[in-house]
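To fix ideas, we reproduce below a protein record of this kind.
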Amino acid sequence: QVQLVESGGGLVQAGGSLRLSCAASGFTFSAYAMSWYRQAPGKERELVAGISNTGGITNVADSAKGRFTISRDNAKNTVVLQMNSLKPEDTAVYYCARRWLGVDYWGQGTQVTVSS
């Protein structure tokens, strides 16, 4: 069965960095685009970054552009979201997802809290 397991969340001060990792299993990882979404309290889930199946195409939401980077390792079945210069408004639960749009599987989420 498809499993997506996130790790790396936590509490960090504004301006700090976190590295979120997603370990995927149960499917042919290299055949699928992957993405990271986030959901803040009282807000809708939003796309943060996506990456094509080969890693050749990436996109980051305007709110995170220049601060966040998405990457993947198809040999290790992992996708990583490197988050730098974090802001309090980045506080949310971050979800790893299979596919970029039209997500069909979600991870359980990892909490990121940025203190001011």
